[in-house]
Structure of NTF2-like protein:
Amino acid sequence: MTSICSTIFHLSAKQEALHASLQEIAEQKAEGIPTSRHPPVTIHTYPFVSASPPFPFEAGPPIDHASGKVSSIAPYLRSANNLSYTRTLALLRRELGPHFPFEKLWERHTYFVSSPRVVPGGCVSTPYVNHVPTMTGGVGFQDLARFYKYHFVRENITPPDTELITISRTIGADRVIDEMIFKCTHTTEIDYFLPGIKPTGKPLEIALVGVVAFRGDKLTFDTPRSYWDQASVLVQLGLLEPGNLPVAGVDVARKVVDPFGQPSNRLLTRWKESEGLPVD
């Protein structure tokens, strides 16, 4: 069988005719390929982006990003650029390298961040951290050094009994994604999770996801990012009454740890209406 150089195409969803013709070629080249090998031709399409000029040319380079500078890039264009970049990088790294130990790099970064002295060498020139629900973090080394030193690693910020339990870890071509449980007793004012909220003394369990991206062997400008259910946090601390709202407390985190240990659909008030109805 004739070998073919691995090829990847990124198309606008508007390029339907080109997509159809390339798909036919991709299927032909994939015939007889064992599952231990990657398909030689892959095609990806992206909605709501231009075919001409090619959509990657419509966004500026990452170096243009700066603190306080509002980007005019449309969300669909940003999405297409990010996805096409990662997919292309996955192919290039697979075929050519280099292969960086992202887990080790991330663990080294967290080791240095946990000390009062933040070392800039592990990040690109414009690093960025965003804790999404509270929008805490910063852009640029100065902001991040200030944030980590005074609002993250100080002894009076993170409760002393804090535990961080990793549920899963996904490693991609340019990022590490951790699914975790953060457990503590709310005995300090946790600036990054609960800014402005005085200690309640109540136990707290938070299911969160952290996204860490790299450019080469350095943390990139647009991560780390972390996501969690702030409503669950507020319910656990008695700061939000669930009432008729579709929110839950500690059960949110515990169902992540043990999916079968907590019932589903308790907040779905219409769940009983479908009981006994056919599902085929």
